[in-house]
Amino acid sequence: VSTQSTGNHPNARDAEVLSTMTVFINKLSYHITPEVPKIFNAVFECTLEMIKGNFEDFPEHRTNFYLLLEAINNQCFPALLQIPADKFKLVMDSIVWAFKHTMRNVADTGLMIVLTMLQNLDSKDVAQSFYQTYFLNILQHIFSVVTDSTNAAQLANQTKVLAFMFSLVEQKKITVNLCANPADYPGVTDNEAFVKCYTQDLLKKAFPNLQDMQVTVFVDGMFALNQDTAAFREHLRDFIVQIKECAGEDLSDLYLQERQAQLKEAAQTKLKYQMTVPGILNPHEVTEDMSENI
Questions:
Q1: Which residues 6+ apart lie within 8 Å of 142 measured at CB?
Q2: How many CB atoms lie within 10 A of CB 173?
Q3: How many CB atoms lie within 10 A of CB 261?
Q4: Tens-place pLDDT, residues 8-38
Q5: Residue 238 and residue 67: Cα distance in Å, rounded?
Q6: Nearest CA to 19 among 56, 77, 67?
Q7: How far apart are CA 66 and CA 81, in angstroms?
């Protein structure tokens, strides 16, 4: 079935092929790892060609493509380490492409893929080579979406990725030198000092209206708070508020995700109360899903 994807016209390719492959991988787990290269050859590049032109075309293929990549990353991670370097770069490029999406489900899937990948790499021999090639690139792109007002809904998962990345540096799990041009950073002798300088330079160039002290305090906080997700998220959000205030932008979307969670919790609390009082709810209105969610 999957071989039909490469030969067919894009409009004739069935998104269910991708979801079927995802089901196989999630069901068979690591047992299907040897077959992952065949799956890649059959569906990866041809689907990527369909969706890489913009953020809207082929939404079902787009969603299923990233769910498949997530399944491979979660269940068959060693297979990703065996593919050729040029194809692995395509994987990384597609992940970055995912968390830049305005489609929330795709962006969240992309962020969780990169987080799980970093976690999976933690004890692998190839980790240092990966960090040297991709760490700064991921960091740069994460900051680009964190500070983009169209991606505010993904703040929770953006927080998880950034906190983990800064903890890797702080805990000295990255032993390879991340600084490609030491002459540009005189006096910097370790990765923690370099990442601080690199991040400060990155943010100062992107937001020249911010004061140097604002950027310095923010970056110091990324190291100080990376073990406390809630505090890290608030620190990140405070910095985004400063950026938006300088640009005169609306701040309301920064709290939308928490507001949605509060409303959902309130609705569940209300339903739980109504179900304890006879006569308030029609028994036919209470579905099995409603009962499970309270």
A1: 99, 158, 161, 162, 165
A2: 15
A3: 11
A4: 555 656 788 899 999 999 999 999 999 998 8
A5: 32
A6: 67
A7: 18
